[in-house]
Amino acid sequence: MTDRSVTHATFSLERIYQVSPARVFSAWADPNAKARWFAGPAAEHELDFRVGGREVNRGRHEGGPVLTFESLYHDIVAEQRIVYASTLHTGETLATVSLTTVEFSPSGDGTRLLLTEQGTFLDGREEPAWREQGTSDWLAALDAELLRTIEEE
Asked: Which of 14, 56, 96, 114 has the largest count of CB atoms under 10 Å?
């Protein structure tokens, strides 16, 4: 029999981006932009960015099981906030369930992004620190995507 456990964790990450809230929000809403910074080159990514829409990101690490991150959008206010609920499956096994809020606000000539995630981590299949680090890595990739678009102008 498998040991069962539940770990609850909440974390918040704040970033300042040197572009407008409209540009940062667009990088979340546009399927091509989101795939570049969120999914990675070898992943399968689908995005239906609307209230009631879903996002699916499938990939794997070097020979490991398929990881499927699926989100359902519950609230979207253009250039202000996004609220979504997500699950992460390792193969066919549920590893986490989470609720994420992303807030966008002006900060000088740029944007302050505040991401807060409340997670339920099941049976030791994912650790809260791993999720926080992975999310931090995504936000760094978002910064690189935004800088890339500035350089293309």
From this structure: 96
